[in-house]
């Protein structure tokens, strides 16, 4: 989506989705609807925001890319530790509905920050490299209609292995941070 809409629009859309998902979750009274609003809508929004934020760092920093990506991912870990303590304090003071509403306001912060994502001119070598990667399969009419989804990445074995390992890792990622408060 970042290639199709741009980093700024994708991050703004993700921030809006996550804020709306949290706000709607504060009014939901049943678990199936909570799964839909909190997990699906907010999760999609956070995924869009995170993806755009990491990709824009990769685009902006060429010489110091490793340090910039390291700082970016370190801030994600620091944010996980911080949000655990903040969520615990909010739950004690405002209960679940108030906590979700406060987190909805907090989810609007990336909306402000993502407005600073300025477009960068693409180098002509990069365009030539992208042209070389395309295959005859990509010229199919159906494929060109859905190409902006990035589904052609699933043809790359390394990407599939990496994605599956991240999914498995994510199953247990938040368990320690959620129960750390207890």
Q: In words, what does this structure look like?
A:
This protein is an all-alpha fold and 182 residues long. It folds into two domains: 1-120; 121-182, no CATH class. The chain has eight helices and no strands. It has helices at 2-5, 7-25, 31-60, 65-106, 109-113, 124-133, 141-146, 157-179. Helix 2 (7-25) runs antiparallel to helix 3, helix 2 runs parallel beside helix 4 (65-106) and helix 3 runs antiparallel to helix 4 (65-106). The longest helix is centred in the middle third of the chain and has 42 residues, at 65-106. The protein is globular and about 45 Å long. Mean pLDDT is 76; it is low at 123-140.
In short:
The chain has eight helices and no strands.
Largest sheet: none
Count of alpha/pi helices: 8
H/E element sequence = HHHHHHHH
Mean pLDDT: 76
Q: What is the total tally of β strands?
A: 0
Set out the fold topology.
Elements: H1 2-5, H2 7-25, H3 31-60, H4 65-106, H5 109-113, H6 124-133, H7 141-146, H8 157-179
Helix pairs in contact: 2-3, 2-4, 3-4
Question: What distinguishing features does this structure have?
Answer:
182 residues; mainly alpha
């Amino acid at each position: 989506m970042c290639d199709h809409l741009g980093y700024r629009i994708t991050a703004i859309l993700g921030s809006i989705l996550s804020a709306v998902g949290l706000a709607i979750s504060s009014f939901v009274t049943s678990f199936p609807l909570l799964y839909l609003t909190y997990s699906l809508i907010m999760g999609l929004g956070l995924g869009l925001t995170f993806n755009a934020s990491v990709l824009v760092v990769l685009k902006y920093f060429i010489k110091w890319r490793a340090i910039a990506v390291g700082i970016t991912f370190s801030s994600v870990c620091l944010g996980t530790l911080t949000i655990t303590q903040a969520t615990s304090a909010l739950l004690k003071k405002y209960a679940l509905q108030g906590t979700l509403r406060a987190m909805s306001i907090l989810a609007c912060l990336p909306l402000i920050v993502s407005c600073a994502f300025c477009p960068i001119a693409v180098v002509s070598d990069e365009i030539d490299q992208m042209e070389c990667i395309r295959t005859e399969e990509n010229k199919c009419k159906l494929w060109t209609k859905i190409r902006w989804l990035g589904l052609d990445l699933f043809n790359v074995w390394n990407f599939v292995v990496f994605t599956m390992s991240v999914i498995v890792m994510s199953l247990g990622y938040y368990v320690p941070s959620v129960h750390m408060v207890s």
